[in-house]
Amino acid sequence: MCYSMSSDSMLYQHWVILIVCFLIGMGCSSSTSPDIDFSQGQFQKGAVSDSTLTLNKHSNNVWAGTTKGIFRKSNNNVEWNDRGLQIDSAKVIDLTFLENGEVLAVVKYDDFNSENPMLFRSIDGENSWSVDSSTVIKEVENFAISEIEKAGDTNHLYVYRGYVIKSTDFGKTWEVSFKEGAAPKFLTLSSYHPEQIWTGGVTNIFSPYLAKSEDGGESWTRLDKSLDGGDATCYDALLHPDNSDHVLIGLGGAVKESNKIRKSTDSGQNWETVLSGSNIRTFAHSADNPEIVYASGRNADGTLFFAASQDFGDSWQQVEWQDSPIGIQINDIVSVMESGQEVLYFGTNQGIFSYTFNE
């Protein structure tokens, strides 16, 4: 037997389907997180007023390398405590932390001398530091160390000293990993992708220098030409926490067009500009949500600022401190959680500042 449906019944079914689809759509949209207003927070000047070159978080502490040695702050303490390594005419430019509790610190002198000790080691993370003589490598002894990084939970260390140098035994012995050096500005190892290493700076003809390794430093690929960054310097790189093909590069230069962030979704083969107008020196993942990223450096106004993105660089919100001192350059950012609130710390040429997000 065959039945036919009336036009009224068909119309009724049609409207039921539309209403159900609408309700499902409403339910889906209500489950998504609303856009975050990153401007809801407060800037504050910290107790450390010395020029700060590096910030690191480790074991619920924030560490700072400055022109006056090393300082450390615990998450629930407002004070920054002196941790030594004050050396005349020198500054601490980088720190890394080993699994056995030791700390390595890189020192840069105002007047370079290859005989000056550049790497120091503390076995207790306190005020006692000793010269680490294992870094003397004849092939590159006339270059200063500019950065040191540790690869995840391994015993591998990487140093930029004109070339990229690798140690597989926590710094007891070293070997050259990558010789095609330039004027170095950064060495980035992603905690989310420990086999990937990115490095860059500027060439001797003042164009961007960029290279990567995807196998822990065994082989390297130069990406200068694909980046097409103009007359700029590469200052930092950041990898997406879930997809290492997605990369952000911070660029800066003397002309306005050189100041930007470029993004690649194919591990550096192709790039697009996703933010213009600011000389980007540093990136950081949010401690609350690593999908959120922050960038900063030096803007046209010379004020304290940061840019935040919820979609790994496709769109940005910039937040500027209206009461900022002038002439600020941000050298490093770190995001930490303190008493349930996210706090950004900025290491600048005028000391350490912070930004606390409202709950």
Q: What's the layout of helices and strands?
A:
Elements: H1 7-31, E1 41-45, E2 52-58, E3 61-66, E4 69-74, E5 81-82, E6 90-97, E7 103-109, E8 119-122, E9 130-131, E10 147-150, E11 157-161, E12 163-167, E13 175-178, E14 183-189, E15 197-202, E16 208-213, E17 221-222, H2 224-227, E18 233-239, E19 247-252, E20 260-264, E21 272-276, E22 279-285, E23 293-298, E24 305-309, E25 317-320, E26 330-338, E27 341-348, E28 351-357
Structure overview:
By secondary structure, the protein is mainly β. It has a domain at 39-78 and 280-359. It contains 2 helices and 28 strands. The strands form 7 sheets. Strands 1-28-27-26 form a 4-stranded antiparallel sheet, with no helix packed on it. A 4-stranded antiparallel sheet has the order 2-3-4-5, with no helix packed on it. The protein has a 4-stranded antiparallel sheet with strand order 6-7-8-9, with no helix packed on it. Strand 27 and strand 28 (351-357) form a beta hairpin.
Write a concise synopsis of the structure shown.
The protein is mainly beta.
Backbone structural class: mainly beta
Query: How large is the share of residues in beta strands?
Result: 35-45%
Q: Order of SSEs, N→C?
A: HEEEEEEEEEEEEEEEEEHEEEEEEEEEEE
Number of helices: 2
The stretches of 5 or more residues where confidence is low (pLDDT under 50) are 1-7, 14-34
Largest sheet: 4 strands, antiparallel
Helix content: under 10%
What overall form do the CA principal axes indicate?
Answer: globular
What integer value in Å does the Rg equal?
Answer: 24 Å
Strand order of the largest sheet: 1-28-27-26
Mean pLDDT: 86
Count the E strands: 28
